Structure prediction request, 453 residues.
Amino acid sequence: MDKSSQNVEKILGEADVLTGSGNHEGAAKLYSQALRYDPDNVSLMVRLGESTLLSGRKKAALEIFRVAAYRAAMDGNLLNAIGINKRILAIDPNQQETKQALSRLASRVDPDSARNFRSVFGEIVPDEESIQVTRKTLARHLEADELDSVEYFVDQMAIHASVTDRPESIEAIVDKLPELPLLSALMPEHLEQLIDRLSFETFSPGKSIVREGEKGDVLYIIISGEVSVTRKGPDGVDAEVARMGESEFFGEMAFFSGARRTASVGARTRVETLSINRDDLAVIAARYPEVSQVLHDYYKKRLIGAVLRISPLFSTLDEGEQLGLIKEFSPRTVSFGEFIIREGDSPSGLYVIDTGDVVVTKSEDAGREVIINHLGAGDFFGEISLISNSPATASCIASREVTLFQLDMEAFEKISARYPRMVKVAVETGADRLKRSEEYLHVREEMVEKGLL
Prediction:
């Protein structure tokens, strides 16, 4: 870490202390000081806006947020721009033009369809008069040291706005706009409705965001920061299974499936998110049914895609072949203790585990159930009876709540000809499992006869 970064970290620590004690004017001065070391940092600009608002200077805060939103959009960070925009709307709900412009940007407007950049950005792109209003408002409400830090952003905005009518400028900006998870799949008018329902939330380091086992009716998209994803192991201790950052989202499994949350998520750093609850999405879907379908399709593609990448069954397939399989699978949630397959039943399909654990049991001659295997995320089962078209050779039971994907018999038969390598893996795995279970039961039978069991 260079000296400038060290200075910023030290200042931020002091500013957080002042914010905690309610000294928002003092915190605003420190954020201004930090901006001198890191003048292009939009996050610092936002925190300055927050402290300015909390210190009672609403008009100045609005202008700071507006400048920060513009800069975030110009940098291609649309999630951040939308988040800042939500702050603006919370302070002044009349700022509807900004929301409309952001929705068009997030859906990646074709620059060739816009006569000039302002037709895409609406009120986001300021004219000379509005920039002068911004300067005057800031000058009236900010102290000299605060104003110096903000002026750099305003100057950059003025320079940028002066060239946005050039076709090459429009194309360069729109070309660098990222595809946003979930959001970019929507049409502009649908996205505008969704943005209107999004909530902005901030979480401090160490703060719990969602907990494993709770009801999940909120979906989160990370604007900035990093979160830790943990799951309880067999010993009941939380173990980190992933970290997620900017533009990633979480909570979608419980949100779309209605199941309880399969993992806990907590903030590792200061985290800013956009979120939407199920009730708000239902309001949008009632008016635009296609919105719900688009989001569900995206969720299914992402979720099954992750399972395909870690499951040995699909390791022989390339990415294109894996994507081709996604539409054939159906998601399913199974409660603790529920039978997924019963020994002796007709083939029902091939199953791939996303989360949770499955215990495999087989009946002995005496009628007792013997555990012969444990399966977890990425494992598959059901292949033996499916390939041989014979009754199931064992039972598969959820040893805790399980989320999985099912490929029914008809779909499996349809894709077998297209993906012979996948079928080969399934045949080899099935034969190996049969051999190991027979060996295990034979050894167990001998031990019973000797009185060792």
